[in-house]
Write a structure and sequence with these properties.
The complex is a heterodimer of chains A (306) and B (360). Chain A is mainly α. Chain A has a single domain, classed as ABC transporter involved in vitamin B12 uptake, BtuC (Orthogonal Bundle). Chain A has 12 helices and no strands. Chain A has helices spanning 8-34, 42-60, 63-87, 92-110, 136-140, 145-163, 165-175, 177-182, 187-213, 225-235, 240-262, 269-287. In chain A, α1 packs parallel to α6 (145-163). The longest helix of chain A has 27 residues, at 8-34. With 360 residues, chain B is of the alpha/beta class. Chain B has 2 domains: 19-130 and 255-278, Response regulator (Rossmann fold); 131-253 and 287-330, Response regulator (Rossmann fold), CATH 3.40.50.2300. Helix content of chain B is 40%, strand content 19%. Chain B has helices spanning 2-24, 41-56, 72-83, 97-106, 131-145, 160-176, 193-205, 219-227, 256-268, 296-310, and strands at residues 26-31, 60-65, 88-91, 111-115, 124-129, 150-155, 181-186, 210-213, 231-234, 247-253, 275-278, 285-288, 321-322, 328-330. In chain B, the strands form 3 sheets. Chain B has a 6-stranded parallel beta sheet with strand order 2-1-3-4-5-11, sandwiched between helices. In chain B, strands 7-6-8-9-10-12 form a 6-stranded mixed beta sheet, with helices on both faces. A two-stranded antiparallel sheet of chain B has the order 13-14. Chain B is globular and about 60 Å long. Classes of the chains: A mainly alpha (306), B alpha/beta (360).
């Protein structure tokens, strides 16, 4: 065992990277669920974002364009879900699962000619003085821009849901779509916008994996992050800051357990491997001991005539 | 009533027609643990499948199911394949062992071939490649190339195949560089690019400058490339897109000749349950080109090692070798047995010098 081999600064820096795709996908899904829609297609939208972003970034040699394309692709795919659930009034669980399966298949098809290609590198933030500060520099000031976007998005979603009129309407739609409808709000429109936001976030999260974290394209490369994001939203009681905490905990313990293994620590590997899931669930369950429940209309279909 | 009767008989006729048609062709099914585009393990199995198609043309019909989880799901997929009339089914991951045996009991006429396992039955063959021979070559190069004397190893699951690889790489690295140390991370997955990348980064951050992987994606290669001064090896497939650096060589699995031979055996009716375990000599394990990033003398030594492994003049596990706890395993000049107690097939112990512990 040699704990001194673990550099805490590098550890924190890489846990932030590991947590970002999860955070992006979860924060998008949080908004969707607060609007009363359960979209189980996060994994599908992520993987579509991953390949679209990758392909566009390779073709245009600009990672930024790739990221934007990934958001658009995720949002477009989510429109399919929106159409099925909001107009065709299909079951949300089934539609979401179908979206994931569809996304995984379509991404494999789209990615056929992109296996083994290296994407253009995303420049890291490099602020002359700040990035050189010994400990804080690597942790706070020398990441890729998307990581900061993830944090900013969390703050923005918190502000939007809590402080803005639009957020109030969205929450009203999620709690009681009949009441919101009676007040004259367009339930369907609010939900479609929320679904598209969720799709764009998931797409961005997927592209973060394929363009920055790994970076390369392989089939099925999101490997279940979308499902973890879904679980995280529930365990975080639909609250943005808890999603952030959960994502960083999960990403952090995952990176930490790999580092502990590499350092040869004497804890059995099985415990290390399950620790991210256990600890994240435990912390969030303890925190959700207050009375915050799911949005009351979550998963229920709405039609103005009913 | 009449209509349904008509439809039923039509369906029956159709069913008969298709099954009659199917009789002409030999149906071969493949079950994959990862996606065919993983660039590693499954990619090579799929290349073997395509080679079967090319070799036999219209006489065979191949099907495959990819990304099948090891466990109960695999049993369902294999059963489905057998029900659809497959004559020969290749199940290409260690974790399919029990599912394959279970399904094989229910379909005595279907032939099964399970990769890297050790449970045989009348209609189940096992086949594997001696990857540890390739690991010996990697270990040799790794021991010579490392400057920090720390070698990182991304392992998948604690099964004999993986443990053999770690042992083989370790003793050959140690032989050329007595100061070498192995850091081993168990990823508990065959294929998860993000996790593999994280594991590679963790190893690199802790000072490893050579990364060996027993997982199937190219993500560790990309992580090494980003780090700039870290050596890697292709796993299961050449991963040549990362040559000449960081990927300096590779282990390539070549299943095509075996798959063609076994399909032929089913066609001839000469198929028997066998246990095949071939290495570099038989061509089942290939060593990818050693790139120019490796110094010429090291390359020459590595090639000589490949040669001696291929012609059988050298065995990758030749004594004196002790187990991790210091008890003797092989005496001076003795080579490891394939089967039996302490045989290679069931290897579940590290060799002396490795400081980590095998998870149980």
């Amino acid at each position: 065992m040699d704990l001194s081999a673990i550099n805490p600064v590098l550890l924190i820096a890489s846990l932030m990277v590991a947590a970002t795709p999860l955070l992006l996908a979860a924060i998008g899904e949080l908004v969707v669920e607060r609007a009363g829609v359960l979209n189980l297609g996060v994994e599908g939208m992520m993987i579509i974002g991953a390949i679209s972003g990758f392909a566009i970034a390779v073709e245009t040699t600009s990672p930024m364009v790739g990221l934007v394309a990934a958001m658009i692709a995720g949002a477009v795919l989510s429109l399919l879900f929106a159409f099925l659930t909001q107009f065709a009034l299909a079951n949300q669980v089934a539609s979401g699962l179908a979206l994931t399966l569809f996304g995984l298949g379509l991404s494999a098809l789209m990615g056929q000619s992109y296996v083994g290609i290296k994407p253009p590198a995303m420049a890291k933030l490099d602020i002359p003085v700040l990035s050189d500060i010994p400990v804080l520099g690597p942790i706070l000031f020398s990441h890729d821009p998307v990581l900061y976007i993830g944090l900013a998005l969390t703050a923005a979603v918190y502000w939007f849901l809590k402080k803005s009129r639009g957020g109030l309407i969205l929450r009203a739609v999620g709690e009681s779509h009949d009441a919101a409808h009676a007040l004259g709000y367009n339930v369907i429109r609010v939900r479609i916008l929320a679904i598209m936001f969720g799709g764009a976030c998931a797409g961005l999260g997927g592209a973060y994996i394929s363009l920055i974290r790994v970076p390369q394209w392989t089939e099925g490369m999101t490997a279940g992050v979308g499902w973890i994001a879904l679980a995280l939203v529930v365990f975080a009681s639909w609250k943005p800051w808890r999603v952030l905490l959960g994502a960083y905990l999960f990403g952090g313990i995952n990176v930490l357990q790999l580092n502990l293994q590499a350092a040869g620590i004497a804890i059995p590997v099985e415990y290390l491997a399950m620790s991210p899931y256990l600890i994240t669930i435990l912390v969030l369950v303890i925190m959700s001991a207050d009375k915050s429940g799911a949005p009351a209309s979550l998963g229920r279909t709405f039609h103005a005539s009913q | 009533m009449k209509l349904t009767k008509l439809l039923t008989s039509a369906a029956v006729a159709l069913g008969l027609a298709t099954s009659a048609m199917a009789d002409d062709k030999t149906k071969v099914g493949f079950v994959y643990v990862g996606p065919v585009g993983d660039g590693g393990w499954t990619y090579e199995h799929n290349k073997g499948r395509l080679a079967v198609e090319e070799h036999f043309g219209d006489k065979v019909e191949t099907t495959f199911v990819e990304s099948v989880p090891e466990g109960a799901d695999a049993e369902r997929v294999i059963t489905q394949m057998a029900l659809q009339g497959a004559d020969l089914i290749f199940t290409t991951s260690f974790g399919y062992m029990d599912p394959t045996i279970n399904v094989a009991k229910k379909f005595p006429k279907v032939k099964f071939e399970h990769a890297t396992g050790y449970k045989q039955a009348d209609n189940v063959s096992v086949y594997s490649a001696r990857f540890y021979e390739g690991r010996a070559v990697q270990g040799h190069i790794a021991g010579k190339m490392t400057k920090t004397n720390k070698i990182g190893y991304i392992a998948s699951f604690p099964i004999p195949e993986v443990i053999r690889g770690i042992n083989s790489a370790y003793i050959h690295a140690k032989k050329v560089n007595p100061d070498v140390e192995f850091s081993i991370i168990w990823a508990y997955t065959w294929f998860d690019p993000a996790k593999e990348a994280d594991a590679a980064k963790a190893l690199i951050e802790q000072g490893a400058d050579v990364i060996l992987q027993h997982t199937d994606s190219t993500a560790p290669q990309a992580a090494a490339q980003a780090a700039g001064n870290v050596v890697t090896f292709g796993q299961a497939s050449d991963m040549g897109e990362y040559a000449p650096f960081p990927r300096v060589s590779s282990i390539i699995d070549d299943w095509a000749p075996y798959y063609i031979a076994r399909t032929q055996a089913v066609m001839d009716g000469s198929w028997e349950s066998v246990s095949t375990w071939d290495g570099i000599g038989a061509g089942m394990v290939g060593i990818g080109e050693i790139s120019d990033a490796v110094p010429a003398d090291v390359k020459a030594e590595a090639l000589a090692l490949v040669e001696s492994l291929a012609d059988g003049s050298y065995h990758a596990f030749t004594g004196p070798l002790n187990k991790q706890d210091g008890t003797p395993w092989l005496a001076e000049g003795e080579t490891a047995q394939d089967y039996g107690d302490d045989g290679l097939a069931g290897m579940n112990f590290y060799l002396e010098g490795i400081t980590a512990e095998i998870p149980n």
